[in-house]
Amino acid sequence: MRFAVLGSGNGARAWCAQIAAKGYPVVMWEPLEETDDFKKIREEKEMFLEGNMSLGGKLAGATMDIAEAMEGADYLLVIVPSFAHEPIFKKMIPHLKDGQNVVVVPGNFAGFRLKKMMDEMGVEKDIIISETDTMPYACRIDTYNTVMVFKKKYKIRMGTCPSAKNAEVLDVINDAFDGHVEFLPAKNLLEVDFENINYTLHPFPVILNYGEIEKNGKTFRHYMDGITPEASKKMWKMDEERLAIGRKLGLELQDVLTQLKMYYGDNDTTTIYDYVNSDQSPYKDLVGQSIMGRYLAEDVPGVVVPIMLLAEKAGMDAPISRLVAEIASLLHDRDYIGGGTTLETLGIAEKTVDEIIEMIS
Amino acid sequence: MKTTKFTVLGSGNGARAWCAQIAAKGLPVVMWEPLEATEDYLKLKEEKEIYLEGDMNIGGSLAGVTMDVQEAMDGAEFILVIVPSFAHEPIFRKMIPQLKDGQNIVVVPGNFAGFRLKKMMKEAGVERNITISEMTTMPYACRIRNYKTVTVYKKKFALGMGTSPKDRNGYVMDILNDVFAGYVKYLPADNLLQVDLDNGNCIVHPLPVLLNYGEIEKNGDTYRHYIDGITPLISEQIMKMDEERISIGKKLGLELTPNLTQLKMFYGQNDSETIYDYVHSPESPYFDLVGQSVNSRYLKEDVPGIVVPLMLLAKKAGMEAPICELVVKLASQLHGVDYVAEGTNLKTLGIEDLTIEEIVRMVS
User: Fold this and answer.
1) Is B194 a domain residue?
2) To the nearest whole angstrom, how far is the Cα of B234 from the nearest Cα of chain A?
């Protein structure tokens, strides 16, 4: 099994190390520029994880030539922030071959985007698209060939389109992560898109702590300082809204607390606030926040808005999602709804809900 | 010139302060206690004296203290309703049957009381030739120290007052400016609606609470609404909300005063260009204002009582009020209350079937 990792950031290098540690051939593709890091990696072809897990191994290659990276790869792992999906897909699509697997980590509606772009570029290939709901670990590049893993998740979810191929892709990825992270099945890509915990955990607390973040951003801890008991209750309502939208769309979603327990360890807490303050919480040392930060600037247009628009497409109100999107727009003086991940940008504006589900199942 | 007789309906901080102010002028004033014969009430009834201390030091003798609204209102030329706005309705219910032609009602602060009073008089079938005046705000921030002494923390320099019918505004203002001469100056407003919509609380109160909800929940006892809550960026947002209020006023044909201009009128001029700057200027009255709660009246009263009617009037005039709407929705969401349905809506004001022109004429 041959892998190509498209991307060279924290997560991309971590996946390279993870696959290399298993002894599988993996090529890293650098999408932007020939940095010093890139040159050293291309020279030495080694990558390591340290911290929460310690492993690593040899890369089959590191290249800026996407054709070379993708040639003969069974698995194309797209591991970049979601704003980079579109430019990367543009470069990737011309080189796709029948039978290749594309795995996007985390998914964030990438399946819809990729299908739309392939359609627009007139590229018809028999490929398999998978998405995960989140990154398997929180990590940061330490040196050019070492990535520090702060917190590994126990289990995350992965969906595949066509869904009949989910088990096969899961086997391959679970083999690569064996003993470290377990990937669980999802019914389709939309289920994974809706299970992005950032929807519930990120924007609302920033709004309710806007003044404090403006004053004390450097020391503000989003989870520990921002998720107060009251904020936790309101976030829980927003999560219930997400679950209700999911039900309306026929998705089987887990509530955010169940997800946290799956990712970071089980306990008997019954609120987000209690989990964040429990022994299993990964959030105690997470310091620093900004009012213009990605928790609003990315998660509102990229996660909250498409979920809200899909609810409205299904004939359902999503008042909390809409409120959060409108307040973020007001505070940032942007139109996060019109300028966000709309159904048009996903190529599904004209489709019925059933057609949308079918498209990514 | 005949002596003007005053009655103050209410017995709280503001009501007692007004009693002292009028008594200091040597004018006859009766205080009406609307609720119960408390110890304070019994002592006041006995001694009939009341004083202001702090930012101003004056006082004098009361003409009477009573729980009988008929006795209080009998022969009074000026009836001053000085209670929180949630008490307007129950007090009007007791007041209306006793109203006489020629009486002047002054509601401090107004908060749409003119509409409510007219609606209730109509429902009660009471037609009287009275004047109704409203003020934008209280003339001072004050608190009862003991039964007969009210501490004034901060006196305002000037504030707006309107009257319906408007051609009587000059007369009412003359009387009140005489009472407050040397202390507070009342400035004319075009009508009651202008006074209602010039209530700056709808700008400086709710949005900072919403955007500091977490900090208020954690540190409510030491949190300072203005100094901690109105950050430079929150100041920008509340000034945007104020622009929305001003443009709603324009649409309704009202010339509203920007909040910053009002702050300067209340507390003193300076060259601040933002609310943030004013709040931190030497003229700011807000440095020592400590303590806030997520269930604060800044949301519970000011959202349903001011932001909601402002938003509904904008909509009636065919205009969007997106910031007001977000404030109402977020406050409703956080408090689990539908502040539009339960607030001061056009129905509770008795104006849902009127046009904008009719509404403005009704209080002009």
Assistant:
1) no
2) 7
Task: Enumerate residues 6+ apart whose C-beta is below 8 A from A180.
Answer: A18, A53, A136, A152
Q: Are A304 and A341 in the same domain? A: yes
In this prediction, residue B331 has a pLDDT band, given cuts at 50, 70 and 90, of: very high
Tell whether A210 is within 8 A of chain B (Cβ). yes
Could you tell me how many residues make up chain B?
A: 364
Residue B347 in any domain: the answer is: yes
Domain boundary among B189, B222, B257: B189
Contact A212 B215 (CB under 8 A): yes
pLDDT attached to residue B3:
85
Number of domains into which chain A is organized: 2
CB contact under 8 A, A228 and B217: yes
Any CB–CB contact under 8 A between B157 and chain A? no
Contact check, Cβ <8 Å, A323/B330: yes
Q: Would residue B196 count as lying in a domain?
A: no
CA distance A215 to chain B (A): 7
Strand partners, B106: B80, B133
Question: Where does a domain end: B189, B210, B245?
Answer: B189
pLDDT band at A52; cut points 50, 70, 90: confident
Best probe of the A interface among B330, B337, B338, by most A CBs < 10 A, is B330
CB contact under 8 Å between A231 and B330, yes or no, is no
The answer on A353 and A241 residing in a single domain is yes
Interface probe with A: pick from B213, B275, B327, most Cβ of A within 10 Å: B213
The domain in which residue B329 lies consists of: 201-362
Cβ separation of A323 and B211 shorter than 8 Å?
no
Q: Say which of B213, B237, B329 has its CB closest to residue A323.
A: B329
CATH of residue A129's domain is: 3.40.50.720
| A137 in the same domain as A104 | yes
Co-location of B233 and B268 in the same domain: yes
Chain mean position to CA A21:
23
Same domain, B116 and B236: no
Let me know: does A168 contact A143? Beta carbons within 8 Å.
Answer: no
Please report whether residue A283 resides in a domain. yes
Count of CB atoms within 10 A of residue B221's CB? Answer: 9
Stretch B133-144: mean pLDDT: 95
Against a cut of 0.90, is the pTM above it? Answer: yes
pLDDT, tens only, A141-160: 999 999 999 889 999 999 99
Q: Which pLDDT belongs to residue B1?
A: 52
Name the burial class of residue A107, with classes exposed (0-12), middle (13-18) and buried (19+) by CB atoms within 10 angstroms of its CB: buried
For residue A210, the chain B residues in CB contact (below 8 A) are: 211-212, 233-234
User: In B, residues 233-292, which contact A (CB 8 Å cutoff)?
Assistant: 233-234, 237, 240
Q: Is residue A192 part of a domain?
A: no
Cα(A327)–Cα(A333) distance, integer angstroms = 9
The span from the CA of B12 to the CA of B32, in Å, is: 11
Strands A61-63 and A3-6: unpaired
Q: Are residues B10 and B104 in the same domain?
A: yes
- A141 with A273, same domain? no
Residue of B214, B240, B322 with shortest CB distance to A209: B214
